[in-house]
Write a structure and sequence with these properties.
Number of strands: 5
Helix content: 55-70%
Distance between the termini: 50 Å
Number of helices: 11
Strand content: 5-15%
Order of helices and strands: HHHHHHHHHEHEEHEE
Structural class: alpha+beta
Strand order of the largest sheet: 1-2-3-5-4
Length: 377
């Protein structure tokens, strides 16, 4: 998308003109073709002073008109269509063109009225909308009135129509540019928000993956350290589990990065039993997951992972129970109560996942112990 000066709106190349913007001044110059008529009329009177005055005035008029486009061309890329100069300078440019246009008309006659269209366009580019329309309409009707009232001039309805149409066209282009820039801004904001959401999701998933895995690894390492001088074979078994768990955690992280990771409820229950056993916490786990609808299994798997992680980290419990149903999953223990809830991203991420399915996360203290429940209607 380019503006009237050929400025490429969405592209930026180190502050240099790119694409069609390189040719903006050329495109603007093409429309000066219509000034050939007053220039030719002035040239025909080159034997008189008024002819040279007309030539000079026409050339200066064309140069001033191109100056406006140069200012538009070097304005900030991607900015809304707006006046390229301060208000006082915009008025000066318009007044300068009006003065040169009047000089052209005085020197060469009715042919000089062609300047009216260019003046109206300059008004749209250099003045605020309300004043631009007022000035452009004044110029259009002023030029039309001159063709009616000035002696020796012929009535020209075309100059009124052409000036008003040019004004409307340039104003419409300016509005289209502004709307397109607003759309681009909205798209960029949506892309930024989507990126933020993806970052938050990835941070949540990575926390959930590593939080559980590292907790189990830590417990296994502590157990192996206690057994190394007591039961060497058992210690070796725990160390082998440590190696396997670390490899599993690494694989989980890789799958998360690739975006293909999906938890399974049976897998999480199996991991829960192993983790609780390593932490020397008695486990009461369901034997089957067949009663859970398929669309809720991943959420319930996350709930089991978060609940078991908190039990091992915070509860100091002797027993942990997982209750699984069609509409809910609950992880409860007989530990220290509210302290089992933990803090940080885990529960926040679980609440976000539950909310996506219209569910809720309920935490409450028991006597003794703590309960984490996810309910999906």
């Amino acid at each position: 998308m380019t503006d009237m000066s050929g400025t490429l709106v969405p592209g930026i190349d180190a502050g240099r003109p790119v694409g069609p913007r390189r040719w903006g001044l050329v495109f603007a110059g093409i429309w000066l073709f219509y000034l050939l008529s007053p220039l030719s009329a002035a040239w025909q009177h080159r034997d008189h002073l008024r002819g040279w005055i007309g030539i000079v005035a026409t050339l200066l008029f064309a140069a001033l008109y191109l100056t406006v486009f140069v200012l538009m061309r070097w304005r900030r890329v991607g900015a809304p269509f707006r006046t390229p100069v301060r208000a006082s300078h915009g008025v000066a440019l318009v007044v300068g063109e009006v003065a040169l246009g009047v000089t052209m008309c005085a020197a060469i006659g009715q042919e000089g009225v062609a300047a009216a269209v260019y003046i109206a366009v300059t008004c749209v580019m250099c003045l605020q909308t309300r004043w631009a329309w007022l000035a452009a309409i004044t110029v259009a009707f002023g030029a039309y009135a001159a063709t009616i009232w000035l002696p020796g001039w012929e009535r020209d309805d075309g100059i009124l129509f052409g000036t008003l149409v040019a004004t409307l066209a340039i104003w419409g282009i300016s509005q289209a540019i502004n709307r397109n820039i607003e759309v681009l801004a909205v798209r960029e904001e949506n892309a930024r928000l989507a990126l933020d959401d993806e970052r938050n999701r990835f941070a949540r998933d990575l926390h959930d993956i590593l939080g559980h895995s590292l907790t189990v690894i830590t417990v296994k390492a502590e157990l192996a350290n206690r057994l190394i001088d007591v039961d060497t074979e058992r210690a070796r078994t725990e160390l082998a589990d440590l190696e396997r768990l670390s490899r599993d955690a690494l694989a989980d992280v890789r799958r998360a990065v690739e975006g293909y990771r999906e938890l399974t409820l049976p897998g999480e229950l199996a991991r829960a039993g192993m983790a609780l056993s390593a932490a020397e916490i008695a486990a009461d786990l369901p034997n089957s997951t067949e009663g859970v609808p398929s669309d809720r299994r991943e959420l319930f798997a996350w709930a089991v992972r978060e609940g078991i992680t908190n039990v091992i980290r915070h509860s100091g419990a002797q027993r942990c129970t997982v209750v699984l149903g069609e509409h809910e999953v609950e992880v409860r223990d007989d530990g220290r109560g509210a302290s089992s809830a933990g803090a940080g991203h885990g529960l926040t991420g679980l609440r976000e996942r539950a909310a996506a399915l219209g569910g809720t996360v309920v935490t409450r203290s028991l006597d003794p112990g703590f309960s984490l429940k996810v309910v999906v209607p």
